[in-house]
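Lab manual, section 2.4: Encoding a predicted structure.

Procedure: take the sequence of the chain (141 residues), apply the prediction step described in section 2.3, and record the output as C-alpha coordinates. A sample record is shown.
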Amino acid sequence: MDVQGHLTFLNPSAFEVFGYSQADFEQGLNVLDIIVPEDRDWARANIQRVLTGAHLGGIEYRIARKDGNRVPIIAHASRVMRDGQPTGLRGVAFDVSEFETGRTGAAPAAWPGSGVPRCCRGDYHGNRHGRPRDADQPKGV
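Recorded output:
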Protein backbone atom coordinates (compact mmCIF):
# COMPACT_ATOMS: atom_id res chain seq x y z
CA MET A 1 0.00 0.00 0.00
CA ASP A 2 1.11 3.57 -0.44
CA VAL A 3 1.66 6.00 2.47
CA GLN A 4 -2.00 7.12 2.31
CA GLY A 5 -3.24 3.53 2.75
CA HIS A 6 -4.33 2.90 -0.84
CA LEU A 7 -3.86 -0.76 -1.68
CA THR A 8 -1.49 -1.22 -4.61
CA PHE A 9 -1.44 -5.02 -4.85
CA LEU A 10 -3.66 -7.92 -3.77
CA ASN A 11 -3.19 -11.53 -4.77
CA PRO A 12 -6.13 -13.80 -5.73
CA SER A 13 -6.45 -15.18 -2.18
CA ALA A 14 -6.97 -11.66 -0.83
CA PHE A 15 -9.85 -11.11 -3.24
CA GLU A 16 -11.42 -14.34 -2.00
CA VAL A 17 -11.00 -13.55 1.71
CA PHE A 18 -12.04 -9.88 1.48
CA GLY A 19 -14.86 -10.47 -1.00
CA TYR A 20 -13.83 -7.58 -3.25
CA SER A 21 -13.45 -7.88 -7.02
CA GLN A 22 -10.67 -6.80 -9.34
CA ALA A 23 -12.99 -3.97 -10.46
CA ASP A 24 -13.35 -2.78 -6.83
CA PHE A 25 -9.56 -2.84 -6.50
CA GLU A 26 -9.08 -0.89 -9.73
CA GLN A 27 -11.55 1.77 -8.51
CA GLY A 28 -9.43 2.10 -5.37
CA LEU A 29 -9.46 0.45 -1.96
CA ASN A 30 -8.00 1.98 1.18
CA VAL A 31 -6.88 -0.36 3.93
CA LEU A 32 -8.56 1.82 6.58
CA ASP A 33 -11.92 1.39 4.82
CA ILE A 34 -11.56 -2.39 5.03
CA ILE A 35 -10.60 -2.45 8.71
CA VAL A 36 -13.62 -2.39 11.05
CA PRO A 37 -14.35 1.09 12.45
CA GLU A 38 -13.40 0.23 16.04
CA ASP A 39 -9.87 -0.85 14.95
CA ARG A 40 -9.15 2.06 12.57
CA ASP A 41 -7.51 4.56 14.93
CA TRP A 42 -5.23 1.88 16.28
CA ALA A 43 -4.42 0.63 12.75
CA ARG A 44 -3.71 4.19 11.57
CA ALA A 45 -1.26 4.64 14.46
CA ASN A 46 0.43 1.32 13.66
CA ILE A 47 0.78 2.27 10.00
CA GLN A 48 2.59 5.45 11.05
CA ARG A 49 4.84 3.47 13.42
CA VAL A 50 5.88 1.07 10.63
CA LEU A 51 6.42 3.97 8.21
CA THR A 52 8.86 5.48 10.72
CA GLY A 53 10.80 2.22 10.97
CA ALA A 54 9.17 0.20 13.76
CA HIS A 55 9.17 -3.62 13.43
CA LEU A 56 5.86 -4.62 14.99
CA GLY A 57 5.50 -8.29 14.10
CA GLY A 58 2.10 -9.93 13.71
CA ILE A 59 -1.00 -8.03 14.76
CA GLU A 60 -4.60 -9.13 14.88
CA TYR A 61 -7.10 -6.87 13.12
CA ARG A 62 -10.70 -7.34 12.10
CA ILE A 63 -11.60 -6.56 8.53
CA ALA A 64 -15.04 -6.05 7.02
CA ARG A 65 -15.64 -8.07 3.90
CA LYS A 66 -17.54 -6.40 1.08
CA ASP A 67 -20.65 -8.34 2.19
CA GLY A 68 -20.32 -6.85 5.71
CA ASN A 69 -19.11 -10.01 7.45
CA ARG A 70 -16.12 -9.56 9.73
CA VAL A 71 -12.97 -11.63 9.40
CA PRO A 72 -10.10 -11.70 11.93
CA ILE A 73 -6.65 -11.52 10.35
CA ILE A 74 -3.06 -11.50 11.54
CA ALA A 75 -1.04 -8.95 9.57
CA HIS A 76 2.72 -8.48 9.25
CA ALA A 77 4.14 -5.43 7.48
CA SER A 78 7.42 -3.76 6.63
CA ARG A 79 8.28 -0.36 5.28
CA VAL A 80 9.08 0.14 1.59
CA MET A 81 11.79 2.75 0.98
CA ARG A 82 12.82 4.60 -2.18
CA ASP A 83 15.66 7.13 -2.24
CA GLY A 84 15.75 7.13 1.56
CA GLN A 85 12.04 7.92 1.94
CA PRO A 86 9.16 5.60 2.95
CA THR A 87 6.81 5.02 0.01
CA GLY A 88 4.43 2.55 1.62
CA LEU A 89 4.12 -0.82 3.32
CA ARG A 90 4.47 -4.37 2.05
CA GLY A 91 2.80 -7.10 4.01
CA VAL A 92 1.09 -10.39 4.39
CA ALA A 93 -2.21 -11.10 6.13
CA PHE A 94 -3.49 -14.44 7.39
CA ASP A 95 -7.22 -15.15 7.69
CA VAL A 96 -7.46 -16.68 11.16
CA SER A 97 -11.26 -17.02 11.32
CA GLU A 98 -11.10 -20.79 11.13
CA PHE A 99 -8.66 -20.81 14.04
CA GLU A 100 -10.96 -18.53 16.04
CA THR A 101 -13.47 -21.38 15.88
CA GLY A 102 -10.87 -23.50 17.68
CA ARG A 103 -11.00 -21.09 20.65
CA THR A 104 -14.68 -21.95 21.12
CA GLY A 105 -14.14 -25.69 21.29
CA ALA A 106 -14.53 -26.71 17.67
CA ALA A 107 -11.53 -28.15 15.85
CA PRO A 108 -9.49 -25.48 14.06
CA ALA A 109 -9.27 -25.75 10.29
CA ALA A 110 -6.99 -24.65 7.49
CA TRP A 111 -6.71 -25.04 3.75
CA PRO A 112 -7.74 -28.62 3.01
CA GLY A 113 -4.80 -30.94 3.57
CA SER A 114 -2.33 -28.13 4.19
CA GLY A 115 -2.32 -27.59 7.95
CA VAL A 116 -1.66 -23.86 7.42
CA PRO A 117 -4.03 -20.90 7.64
CA ARG A 118 -5.41 -19.26 4.53
CA CYS A 119 -3.12 -16.45 3.52
CA CYS A 120 -3.54 -13.21 1.64
CA ARG A 121 -0.42 -11.54 0.44
CA GLY A 122 -1.15 -7.86 0.25
CA ASP A 123 -0.29 -4.58 1.84
CA TYR A 124 -1.23 -3.97 5.47
CA HIS A 125 0.15 -2.68 8.80
CA GLY A 126 1.28 -2.70 12.52
CA ASN A 127 1.05 -4.51 16.03
CA ARG A 128 -1.78 -4.46 18.61
CA HIS A 129 0.54 -5.10 21.56
CA GLY A 130 3.40 -2.89 20.40
CA ARG A 131 5.78 -5.84 20.76
CA PRO A 132 8.97 -5.47 18.71
CA ARG A 133 9.57 -8.20 16.14
CA ASP A 134 12.85 -9.16 17.86
CA ALA A 135 10.96 -10.08 21.04
CA ASP A 136 9.09 -12.76 19.12
CA GLN A 137 12.22 -14.37 17.66
CA PRO A 138 14.01 -17.22 19.41
CA LYS A 139 17.56 -16.42 20.50
CA GLY A 140 20.26 -17.41 18.03
CA VAL A 141 18.03 -17.13 14.94
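Check your result against the sample. The chain has one domain: 12-136.
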